[in-house]
User: Which sequence fits this backbone?
């Protein structure tokens, strides 16, 4: 038995794994409460500035999801891209990107779209997509992959916002992409890591 290797499971990406688990818990709570928890805790909409939950929801709306496909699509993408980014930039920086994206998308929705309800991690997914495409940039250089990804992903969102009528918040995707691009540029410039 000396030559046997033990295989261990590692909690390799604490921020991404914890966030994914929180999204799953929020989804289960919404199912059990017939959507009440999504409305009260996990979505952004115009509400009283006196209520402390108005400010909490600016961050927690990214945990709520409308249905299984919404949750599955976002979490799958986060689990593919997120751990690589967390390894490169560190847990604290990735958490900051997530919180910044939640705040920006939540504030814009709250201020400019008072009649709409915003929930889901799509803005964070787009932040990570753009962040991942800029990770290998060098000082003074813009990677061609970043240009292509920005053109394809962001262009698709602009097209869908103009021509497709659905309940997708294309603006949140665009804002997430912008946040990911800007923070990726800044983190690469400063060599940021946890």
Assistant:
């Amino acid at each position: 038995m000396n030559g046997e290797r033990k295989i261990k499971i590692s909690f390799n990406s604490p921020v991404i794994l914890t966030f994914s688990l929180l999204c799953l818990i929020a989804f289960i709570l919404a199912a059990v409460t017939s959507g009440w928890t999504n409305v009260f805790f996990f979505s952004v909409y115009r509400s009283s500035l006196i209520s402390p939950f108005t400010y909490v929801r600016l961050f927690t709306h990214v945990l709520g999801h409308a249905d299984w496909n919404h949750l599955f699509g976002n979490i799958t993408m986060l689990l593919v891209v997120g751990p690589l980014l967390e390894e490169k930039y560190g847990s604290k920086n990735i958490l900051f990107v997530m919180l910044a994206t939640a705040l920006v998308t939540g504030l814009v929705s709250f201020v400019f779209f008072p009649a709409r309800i915003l929930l889901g991690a799509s803005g964070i997914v787009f932040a990570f997509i753009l962040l991942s495409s800029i990770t290998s940039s060098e000082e003074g250089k813009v990677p061609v992959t970043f240009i292509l990804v920005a053109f394809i992903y962001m262009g698709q969102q602009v097209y869908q916002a103009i021509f497709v009528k659905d309940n997708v918040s294309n603006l949140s995707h665009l804002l997430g992409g912008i946040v990911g691009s800007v923070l990726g540029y800044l983190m690469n410039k400063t060599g940021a890591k946890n």
